[in-house]
Write a structure and sequence with these properties.
Number of helices: 2
Strand order of the largest sheet: 3-2-1-4-5
Helix content: 40-55%
Number of strands: 5
Distance between the termini: 30 Å
Strand content: 15-25%
Structural class: alpha+beta
Order of helices and strands: HEEEEEH
Length: 168
């Protein structure tokens, strides 16, 4: 019986491994964001349009829910010493996070102004935080299952489940 692992142990191992993987992905994406912010130039931009994707656009309440289309802001800015550049944000939302004509801070790479992002929490940090948070949560559940499984295993091996004092 000593060589066999209980189902609880395998479940705990799987959850800890899966949670660690999620956390690692979040840490890597966070590192990419940190690298981008560190090396990026700053400029002021304007939301010139909202591109809707993921379905038809309707003003009805039902289609404006989060499962419906999402609005991606299209931003125009002028990099230092360059000509006006336009980019579409990869982060979309419904309802739209930005309005047409709204001024935004832009981060961009000096060597490639097309590689630009809106300087905001959602576009820079939301994905890493979601992955890291889910990873910690799943690994925590796995760790809790491992602790409970180990305690039950010890109690089962000791026989009655009560502690026996030792003379030392």
């Amino acid at each position: 019986m000593r060589g066999r692992r209980s189902a609880g142990w395998w479940i705990a191992f799987g959850l800890i491994a899966f949670g660690t993987l999620f956390f690692a992905i979040g840490a890597i994406v966070g590192g990419v964001s940190i690298s981008f912010v560190t090396d990026a130039e700053r400029a002021k931009g304007t939301v010139v349009a909202l591109e809707w994707s993921g379905g038809s656009v309707s003003s009805s309440r039902k289609s404006r829910q989060s499962s419906g289309p999402t609005a991606h802001p299209v931003v125009e800015f002028t990099p230092a010493g360059g000509s006006p550049t336009t980019f579409r944000s990869s982060m979309g939302s419904n309802p739209p996070a930005y309005d047409e004509g709204e001024r935004v801070d832009v981060l961009y790479r000096a060597d490639d102004p097309q590689d630009a992002k809106i300087d905001g929490f959602v576009s820079l940090w939301l994905i890493p935080l979601i992955f890291c948070g889910i990873g910690v949560l799943i690994a925590g559940v796995g760790t809790a299952i491992a602790v409970v499984t180990r305690r039950r295993s010890r109690l089962t091996r000791s026989g009655s489940g009560t502690a026996v004092p030792t003379v030392g």
